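Protein modeling request. Please complete all fields; requests missing the sequence field cannot be processed.
Requester role: graduate student
Desired output: 3D structure, token encoding
Chains: 1
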Amino acid sequence: MANGWSFHGDLLQNFAYFLKPEEIDFRFPEAWYFLWLIPFLGLWMIRMIWLKCHMSRLMGVRGKLVRQLFKGVAILAALFLFIAALAHPYGIKIIQKPVWKGEVLDLVFDLSLSQNADDVWPTRMGALKRDVSKAVVKLRELGIFKICVGFFTTTFNRLLECTEDLDAVREVLDRLDTSFAGSEGTNLLAAFPYDYELMRKDGIIPAGSRINLFIMTDGGKEMWIDRNGVLNFLEADWNEDDLRKTVVDFAGKGVQVIPIGVGGKKPALVYVSGAFGRKEPIKNSAGENIYTMLDEDTIKKIALWAGSPDRYFILRENSSLADWISGSVIKRLEVDHYNSEKSEKDLWRYPLTLGVVLASLALGIFS
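Delivered output (367 residues):
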């Protein structure tokens, strides 16, 4: 089916079709049979021009031979262009469209209560859901991805197995909530899925596909200020050496580990939903408020251990995680093969327009 032509289109690209006649075909080639009219009309016009000039000489009036010749040529050219437009020319181009190697995106969210902190608008969790959903929309256009969704606090949970149904992915993202977790704490070791081999075996992850594991977390850095004004840090739920070994192990298996940190630069209160839906800060056993702060150093270490020190993102105000996710994935795409696709563009408006201009000149200026 030919694509429609638009005056708002790329005119240079349309004219380029005429520079390569082998790429032009006609929907109604039988219209060219009308070309036989041109020589007969040409002979008739020559006779009429000769008669006019002869009569002008007999009457002693100077004839307008040059103007009449231009008029005749313009009329014949306009007729030729009208016939060309009637034949309905269209340009043909063969486009080599790349078919990309399979990519699997595993979106793993930290659903610990610290994601309720509002140092990123509207909350850390809300900002992640908003931007990741936008990234899914951007990636839909390429149509080459399978996306899985999981979450963790102290253990890993698979929420959605890898699927090409991106509407289902967005629905799951919309429902994400820290209430899913049901426990406190952030064990980064639990961010690494254990079900890749099973999904490969079952064909959920196609053979040869590359897995991009996006881990979205604040790092689990929590603290409180005691009555003496001393800052105290809660003990981490994970060991850094074990975390490094896990990241290196996943990278060695071909999994692209990509950390995404979320949070501001200052400590923020950790909230839970209290009575009547009100937000209430979490307190320790001594009644002191618990604060959370993005552990940016750990985010950078994970990227370093994964083999791509610059491949991480910090989500704060005025930063576009959606563009970064889609851009970082697209940059790493690899072509599997190319498919040839035919592109058509209607061109009949060009000879029609030029024919009208020539006919107008012939019947106006040269009349």
